[in-house]
């Protein structure tokens, strides 16, 4: 493992913790009609991307697409009440984590979060590469 990969893991790990804390804050203290239902869904996809990137710091060019597809599969699972199918509907923690209502708006939020992560990561990497070229 090289130093650059470890540095990237550290950055994504810090971002993961920050997004997780923001998600907890939203869940506990915000009960509005905008931030909790929509911004929270945008941020959860970014959180998942950071978590995966912390484990796999390089490669996986389509990470944000894969996370979007995963989040969408979870959302579609809510439509079919997969928590009950898995026998987890009586466990409140799993009901909260897995969700229990399908919404097309959630799919849009997941797409926005995935797109934001993809754009931010690519802009950052382009900036780093440009600085490296300018340095040489």
Give your account of this protein's structure:
Helix 2 crosses helix 3, helix 2 packs across helix 6 (104-135) and helix 3 runs antiparallel to helix 6. The protein has 136 residues and is mostly helical. The protein starts with a helix and ends with a helix. The mean pLDDT is 91. The longest helix is centred in the last third of the chain and has 32 residues, at 104-135. Helix content is 79%, strand content 0%. It has one domain. The chain has helices at 3-29, 35-55, 63-79, 82-85, 92-98, 104-135.
Distance between the termini: 24 Å
Average per-residue pLDDT, rounded, comes to: 91
- Based on Cα principal axes, name the global outline: elongated
**Structural class, from secondary structure content?**
mainly alpha
Count helical runs. Answer: 6
Order of helices and strands: HHHHHH
Percentage of helical residues? over 70%
